[in-house]
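[09:14] KT: can someone run the structure on this one? pasting the chain below
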Amino acid sequence: MKKVEQNNKVKVHYTGKLESGEVFDSSEGREPLSFTVGAGQMIPGFEKGVLGMELNEKKTITIESEDAYGDRRDDLIQSVPKSQLPEDLNPHEGQQLQSQTSTGQVIPVVVTNVSDEEITVDANHPLAGKTLVFDVEVVGIDE
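[09:31] RB: done, structure tokens below
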């Protein structure tokens, strides 16, 4: 039986959950997820988890934060004076915004606190610092 190897293009159905069982993403009702193993398109732990799986095999993969979205970093949380925001922006907690780094890179941030003078934004990935659990089924393997 053919097994998933490096550089194979694979198709998988998956359900991603937190350790609490809360589902954060799923391919249910959608086309399967396609990616090339080893191309860096997926988090490292997901790629490692599908290696060696056979066609139609189902498996549960547990991925620690360091092989997923990394640990939460305090240096990715910062306060921004409201005077530096666009005049028409009315920020609120949970709002997603985009910030630009000094090199011009655009990064997504989430507003975590709003006060009279400033807002606090967090550039950590929402799943950073979390162990992820994926139920995976390989539905296609191509050379």
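[09:33] KT: thanks! DSSP finds one helix and nine strands in the chain.
[09:34] RB: yep, looked fine to me
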